[in-house]
Amino acid sequence: MKYLLLVVIVAFSFSSAAADFETSQHNFDFEMNQVSLQVRQMTEQRKDHIQVGYKLKDVKIEYRYVDAKDTEQRFRATYSLFGNKNLSIKPRLEYRLFNDKDSVFRLRNKVVLKHSVKDFVLWIELQPGLTLNDMSIDTQTRTGFNYKMNKNVSFGPFFQLNTNNLDRKSSWIGTNFLIKF
Q1: Tens of pLDDT along 78-96?
Q2: Quick one: which of 19, 21, 26, 60 has its CA closest to 42?
């Protein structure tokens, strides 16, 4: 019960501090064996999504529905190219299908560096991407920490910076909450 109270207090404190950023993002992830579900809520933007995934050995297949001003559907495949305790490299190909603009193919490479200190995992995630239709480059950089409440539940805050063709596009703070069954 004390952990649940801690999660609620920290989530609300990060939400209130979000006024200094364009938005805040809150991710709720649920995993069971090879199946995953993510629900994402973003404040100050009308942009929420739900994503389902299935992992087949080293490839994760996912479908994401984004409820935004321009509704979007994403079909993606992510390959686990390399991974150990502190580093993972996962290239991804996705098709982004929009209602009100041209659909695009995008390549993204997700590189994550982690360091564990007792029940805390400190991490930084770099995600350079290339949109194949117009050859534009975008980058998502996130850093934060997760607190392992037990072997199946973790929670933590993060900061994200997005760039488009190396110019700052947006930034926000967020939270991750994960439950494994």
Answers
A1: 999 999 999 999 999 999 9
A2: 26
Q: Are 133 and 112 in contact (CB under 8 A)?
A: no
Pairing of strands 35-42, 23-32: antiparallel
pLDDT in tens, 123-161: 999 999 999 999 999 999 999 999 999 999 999 999 999
Of 143, 170, 162, 156, nearest to 29 (Cα)?
Answer: 156
Q: Rounded distance, CA 102 to CA 2, Å?
A: 48
Q: Which residues of 101-114 are buried (b: 16+ CB within 10 A; e: fewer)?
A: eeeeebebebbbeb
pTM of the predicted structure, to 2 decimals: 0.84
User: What pLDDT is attached to residue 20?
Assistant: 53
Residue type, 80: S
